[in-house]
Amino acid sequence: NFDSRRVNLLPEQRENLGEAFRLALDFAKSPDGWLILVGDTGCGKTHLAAAIA
Predict the structure, then answer these.
(1) Which end of the chain is more exposed for a tag (fewer CB within 10 A), N or C?
(2) pLDDT tens digits, one per residue of 5-26
(3) Which residues contact residue 9 at a Cβ distance below 8 angstroms, ignoring those fewer than 6 apart?
(4) How far is CA 34 from the centre of its chain?
(5) What is the CB neighbour count within 10 angstroms for residue 5?
């Protein structure tokens, strides 16, 4: 369950989060190499990883 439509996001942030999810999901379907999630504490790295697992 990954929802990029959280109320407290700016439109650009929401768009970036949606794109990150799509890219991570594509990688999970056909993993080749490494996928590194980078960001500040609380930005959703672990949530994103769990959503594509």
Answers:
(1) N
(2) 666 788 898 888 888 888 888 9
(3) 17
(4) 15
(5) 8
> Quick one: tokens of 13?
């942030």
Rounded Cα–Cα distance for residues 39 and 35 (Å): 13
Furthest CA-CA distance within the chain: 34
Looking at residue 14, what is its pLDDT?
A: 84
CA atoms of 13 and 52, how far apart (whole Å): 19
Ramachandran assignment for 10, one of left (phi > 0), alpha (psi -120 to 50 degrees), beta (any other)? beta
| Residue whose structure tokens are 């959503």 | 51
